[in-house]
Design brief:
mainly beta, OB fold (Dihydrolipoamide Acetyltransferase, E2P), globular
């Protein structure tokens, strides 16, 4: 019985872990910033439909800022930004990894330490 419960937890954990997708570049115009929820909302064109869509991105302590911005408070509504972000395939929520002003693709995060 314990083995069955352990296997159920293990399979569930693997399913949830596999929900995180690979990094994707999201580009658009900032239409909303919520410092309390640590999120921002972009308007972008959906590549499949050609229609505008809103994308909400979560910001956390691991989010990096580049290209003349150093925090969420450096952004304002109307800014054009590019974001390297992950979308969880299960929850459909986006998490911002790197945010940069403009349409330039963000540079990949540099590992810490001297190499």
């Amino acid at each position: 019985m314990r083995l069955l419960a352990f296997l159920a937890v293990l399979v569930s954990s693997l399913f949830l872990w596999s929900g995180i997708g690979s990094a994707e570049i999201v580009q658009g115009k900032v239409i909303g910033i919520d410092p309390n929820q640590k999120s921002l909302t972009l308007n972008r064109m959906d590549a499949a439909t050609g229609q505008p869509e809103q994308v909400q991105l979560a910001i956390d302590s691991e989010t990096q800022f580049q290209g003349g911005i150093d925090s969420l408070s450096s952004l304002k509504v109307g800014d054009e930004i590019s974001v390297e972000a992950d979308q969880n395939f299960v929850t459909r929520q986006w998490k911002a990894n790197i945010i940069q002003k403009g349409n330039e693709v963000p540079k990949a995060a540099q590992p810490a330490g001297n190499y």
